[in-house]
Amino acid sequence: MAEIVLENVVKRFGAYEVVHGASLEIVDGEFVVFVGPSGCGKSTLLRMIAGLEEISAGTISIGGKVVNDTESSDRGIAMVFQSYALYPHMTVRRNLSFGLEMNGNPKEDTARRVARAADILQINELLERRPGQLSGGQRQRVAIGRAIVREPQVFLFDEPLSNLDAELRVQMRVEISKLHKQLGTTMIYVTHDQTEAMTLADKIVVLRAGRIEQVGAPLDLYDDPANQFVAGFVGSPK
Ligand code: ADP
Ligand code: MG
Fold first, then answer.
1. ABC transporter domain: from which residue to which, for each copy (predicted)?
2. Dist. CA 18–CA 3, nearest whole Å
3. What is the DSSP pairing of strand 186-191 with strand 154-158?
4. Is the ipTM beyond the 0.95 threshold?
């Protein structure tokens, strides 16, 4: 079970508090989108769930287990970033397998996972290329492939498409949606793009200056936004 529960999660950088007691429940298998303006704390929240950033107060649990003191690598999560962070000198195949090899994953199982990810993302013909020989969209696919091979309980995406041009963004958005349907894994997706949020999300979390303003299904937020700020973010005329 990969439900995720945040209870009064606070983040301070020194004396500067950037997340002010966030509480949230994410159901197993849900596609949740965090939206809000730049600097509102989306990445910080995601990084705390990932264990890349310590929490200052509160509790985070994943699959019923409090993970406050659990190493990032033991949380069953995989994160996809905006910058692809691929190794330029390695082939795509090696980019996909490297992390598993480092963890001592058995060779055969690594090969199986790489083949499966390549099938899902349709990048079989790219496996012997290096990142420099790939288009932006192909690189982003490989970055997602690196998350898939970890077979995580939860995928975390931090604005994964914001470096792509508009057309490719739409295409990759559809692919991410398909990926979710195919795998059924819990996904949290950060964006400041309203269309991405409205089309991808089972549930949208609207953030403003380190606080959760409203949580709900896209149409519920559209029909019944809590305030003007939320209305603006979900494109509601209200
Ligand atoms: P978003 O992803 O929504 O654009 P962030 O989570 O990156 O926002 O940042 C939230 C706030 O926390 C911002 O004011 C940012 O400047 C601040 N912040 C983020 N990381 C650090 C850090 N390592 N040190 C100090 N302040 C930080
Ligand atoms: Mg961010």
1. 4-234
2. 24
3. parallel
4. yes
